[in-house]
Design a protein that fits this description.
about 190 residues, 7 strands
């Protein structure tokens, strides 16, 4: 592994909470990071007794913030969604969909089983041009502010451990085993190819 920063992707379903908190933490720690959603739409909680609010991935975070503020500002302030969208605006203009990105990464982290399944299926369906291996690791993270912060910390620790590794695959196995012992979690992972 070169001594240049790892090229890291972090994927949740909507590219709003879990992947964006990891994006913030990894960027702060010097990693080349991009974050994505793997869902078909950005899905945010609806108002009281209302269905979820759906946005296209092309919708900027600023527009989502404005829209939700006009619908029920008190509700979305109380549940933290407006604060999350403001944080996201400081990181990048809007959500991105993993399936629309062709950039290579050294490692891809997902923040839930559904995102993991979609990322692996997408990578397996692509034409492999370089046969460059890329580990895909699922760090199961509940979609809450607190869990997103903990998940970002775990992902950052794993990246820091991989940064200086000569053999990413064997080092990743060691790091995941240590993380499993430390956290009591298991980390689903596989290797896909570009």
């Amino acid at each position: 592994m070169p001594s240049s920063p790892l090229r890291v992707a972090v994927v949740c379903m909507s590219n709003v909470n879990r992947s964006m908190e990891a994006h913030r933490v990894l960027r702060k720690n010097g990693f080349h990071v991009r974050s994505f959603g793997a869902g078909s739409h950005v899905r945010l909680p609806g108002g009281p007794r209302k269905p979820p609010v759906l946005y296209d991935f092309s919708t900027p975070y600023k527009k989502m913030h404005s829209d939700l503020s006009s619908k029920d500002q008190k509700h979305y302030q109380r549940n933290g969604v407006l604060r999350i969208l403001r944080r996201n605006e400081r990181i990048k203009p809007g959500p991105e969909r993993f399936q629309e990105c062709s950039d290579p990464f050294d490692i891809i982290f997902t923040c839930g089983q559904r995102a993991y399944n979609r990322v692996v299926a997408d990578l397996c369906a692509r034409d492999q041009e370089t046969w460059q291996p890329v580990p895909v690791v699922n760090v199961d993270v509940d979609d809450t502010l607190e869990a997103a912060s903990l998940g970002a910390s775990i992902i950052c620790e794993l990246c820091q451990g991989l940064q200086q590794a000569d053999d990413t695959q064997s080092r990743l196995a060691e790091l995941l085993q240590a993380a499993e012992e430390k956290t009591g979690r298991s980390f689903l992972h596989t290797v896909c190819f570009y």
